[in-house]
Q: What sequence folds into this?
């Protein structure tokens, strides 16, 4: 009987008791809307590889256009500007190392003429993220509940660092001599991007985040590739990972 009386008294008094100093409620809510989020994703970056330097490499060497695509890691930090609008800062890296042989010639020792090509892209961006529906709802002065699904679009611009490098043996197609060298081009170029994604909430602080992003950029080539037009750095990335609310 006493135990029932104590439990009943606690149930009546509980709403009036002071709340502990913490940021997460015990029933799947936060005490206020998040001020920032951090997303870390991994996935696949498909390179457009449409400029003539890629066409030359794929024609002469045992490289296919799809070989310049591969794994990528991306992260972004978003700061709330107003309801459903965030300032978005991001970066990532996509790198491919491709081993190849000359398609039409072999060495005087009857061995393949081998090369290694490295293609790396590192974007650094700033933009705006627009949530297509509210990220959550406020149900009292001290409770904010995240939406289960929160789709968004984003757009912006920035700079992209790239590296295009080839090491190994090559054929001089005028004299048919075989020579060993290293060819390298790297630069920083302006870029623009657009993205669409969604976040699925696992808890008030953590969600699953998936995104499709298109990046457009072209970069100047060094004198090692002076006979070619600017290199195509554009591509589409498909990434998924975790989003953390703060």
A:
């Amino acid at each position: 009987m006493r135990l029932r009386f104590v439990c009943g008294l606690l149930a009546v008094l509980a709403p009036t008791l002071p709340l502990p100093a913490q940021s997460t409620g015990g029933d799947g809510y936060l005490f206020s809307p998040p001020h920032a989020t951090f997303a870390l994703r991994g996935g696949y970056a498909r390179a457009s590889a449409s400029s003539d330097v890629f066409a030359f490499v794929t024609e002469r060497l045992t490289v296919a256009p799809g070989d310049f695509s591969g794994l990528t890691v991306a992260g972004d930090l978003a700061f709330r500007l107003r309801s459903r609008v965030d300032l978005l800062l991001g970066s990532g890296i996509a790198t491919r190392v491709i081993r190849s042989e000359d398609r039409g010639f072999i060495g005087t020792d009857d061995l393949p003429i081998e090369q290694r090509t490295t293609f790396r892209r590192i974007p650094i961006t700033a933009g705006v993220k627009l949530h297509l529906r509210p990220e959550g709802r406020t149900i009292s002065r001290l409770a904010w509940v995240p939406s289960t699904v929160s789709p968004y679009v984003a757009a912006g611009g920035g700079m992209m660092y790239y590296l295009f490098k080839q090491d190994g043996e090559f054929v001089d197609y005028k004299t048919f001599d075989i020579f060993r060298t290293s060819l390298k081009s790297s630069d920083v170029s302006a870029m623009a991007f657009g993205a669409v994604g969604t976040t699925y909430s696992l808890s008030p602080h953590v969600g699953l985040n998936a995104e499709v992003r298109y990046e457009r950029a072209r970069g100047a080539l060094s004198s090692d590739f002076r006979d070619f037009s600017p290199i195509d750095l554009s591509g589409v990335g498909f990434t998924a990972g975790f989003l953390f609310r703060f």
